[in-house]
Amino acid sequence: MDYLQAALSETLRLYPSVPVDHKEVVEDDIFPDGTVVEKGTKVIYAIYAMGRMEAIWGSDCREFKPERWLRMVDGRFMSESAYKFTAFNGGPRLCLGKDFAYYQMKFAVASILYRYHVKVVKDHPVVPKLALTMYMKHGLKVNLVKREESD
């Protein structure tokens, strides 16, 4: 289940369900780069872009690489700071349903992969559509082939 958790986290890093979010500043503050933000200012941040930033994720930031979430020593899942991996928000606004969402995703993926071989339909364009919540512009067409008992 560690690799599945890593694959799901990597998917959410590259394709967060909410690609852009905003916050309102509750008291005057200064960002680490020296930018002054005043109380009441709306700050918009792009979770989608953050998941692809070399400064945050390294030179392989555009690659789908679940192994980045696994410890080299034992292959166990290791989580990242909620301020680095912002798919579920961070700090006092961390999504209360995060663990439940992971349980649901793991159950759905494991149930499907246990029963079927899954392949994206050949030449089907896989293009994300950025909106309030991200979805696939043309849907995601797949072929499901029932697994045999011997698989």
What keywords describe this structure?
Cyt_P450_sf; Cyt_P450; two-stranded antiparallel ribbon; alpha+beta; 151 residues; 4 helices; Cytochrome p450
In DSSP terms, counting alpha (H) and pi (I) runs of 4 or more, how many helices?
A: 4
In total, the number of domains comes to: 1
Proportion in helices = 25-40%
Strand order of the largest sheet: 1-4
Q: How far apart are the termini?
A: 19 Å
CATH architecture: Orthogonal Bundle
Tell me the series of helices and strands, N- to C-terminal.
Answer: HEEEEHHHEEEE
Number of strands: 8
Overall morphology: globular
Structure summarized in a few sentences:
The chain has helices at residues 2-14, 47-50, 54-57, 98-115; strands at 20-24, 29-30, 36-37, 42-46, 116-120, 128-129, 135-136, 142-146. By secondary structure, it is of the alpha+beta class.
Q: Could you describe the 3D structure shown?
A:
This protein is α+β, with helices and mostly antiparallel strands. The chain has one domain (2-146): Cytochrome p450 (Orthogonal Bundle). Helix content is 26%, strand content 19%. It contains four helices and eight strands. The strands form four sheets. The protein has a two-stranded antiparallel ribbon with strand order 1-4. It has a two-stranded antiparallel sheet with strand order 2-3. It has a two-stranded antiparallel sheet with strand order 5-8. It is globular, with a radius of gyration of 18 Å. The model has no long low-confidence stretch (mean pLDDT 94). This is CYTOCHROME P450 86B1-LIKE.
